[in-house]
């Protein structure tokens, strides 16, 4: 995904609802000078690539993400790992780059995927979930290509609720328009 495609998808994922070209344009214009037709072309390209679906609304379209940002990140990691001639060494190097917080998140994720240890108590499982670990899901996106999005059936996830800058509201919702 290119830089502008990522900027557009970041907004689609963050807002977690069908969006118009105009909404994305107005938000992008807070950061850069960009034309309506450029945003329209980028959203059309993302549709052609399968990253967004669209539904006609009058003379325009509303675009909605097909997959979550987490599924996209997982597919990128899987693609990079699968291209290594020594997957174990690649994982060791990757783990070595992780912060302590990232290693803890990885440990929590492994526990979720593997299930509880036979001797683990219910209280211990509750503590792990309370620390913010996601619940297990049937999403197998880590086994897909980053070039092919994973259909999530419109699931809402915490990963899509906040942007990297920590803001979890779309500009329209601050004006009372939730888009729903």
From TrEMBL:
Spans through the membrane: none
A Gene Ontology BP annotation from the UniProt entry: negative regulation of DNA-templated transcription
MF annotations from Gene Ontology: DNA binding
Keywords assigned by UniProt, alphabetized: DNA-binding, Transcription, Transcription regulation
Span list, region Disordered: 113-180
DNA-binding recorded as keyword: yes
Biased composition (Polar residues): 138-147, 170-180
InterPro entries attached to this UniProt entry: BlaI_family (IPR005650), WH-like_DNA-bd_sf (IPR036388), WH_DNA-bd_sf (IPR036390)
Protein origin, superkingdom: Bacteria
Chain intervals with Low complexity compositional bias: 120-135
Family: Belongs to the BlaI transcriptional regulatory family.
Protein name: BlaI/MecI/CopY family transcriptional regulator
Organism lineage string: Bacteria, Bacillati, Actinomycetota, Actinomycetes, Kitasatosporales
């Amino acid at each position: 995904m290119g830089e502008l495609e990522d900027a557009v998808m970041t907004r689609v994922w963050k807002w977690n609802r069908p969006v118009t070209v105009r909404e994305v344009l107005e938000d992008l214009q807070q950061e850069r000078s960009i034309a309506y037709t450029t945003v329209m072309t980028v959203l059309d390209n993302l549709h052609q690539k399968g990253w967004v679906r669209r539904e006609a609304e009058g003379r325009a379209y509303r675009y909605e993400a097909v997959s979550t940002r987490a599924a996209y990140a997982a597919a990128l990691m899987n693609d990079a790992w699968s291209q290594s001639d020594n997957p174990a060494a690649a994982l060791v190097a990757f783990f070595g780059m992780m912060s302590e917080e990232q290693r803890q998140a990885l440990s929590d994720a492994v526990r979720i995927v593997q299930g509880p240890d036979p001797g683990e108590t219910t209280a211990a499982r509750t503590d792990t979930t309370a620390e913010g670990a996601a619940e297990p899901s049937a999403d197998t996106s880590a086994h897909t290509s980053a070039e092919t999005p994973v259909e999530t059936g419109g699931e809402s996830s915490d990963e899509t609720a906040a942007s990297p800058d920590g803001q979890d509201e779309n500009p329209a919702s601050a004006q009372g328009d939730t888009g729903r």
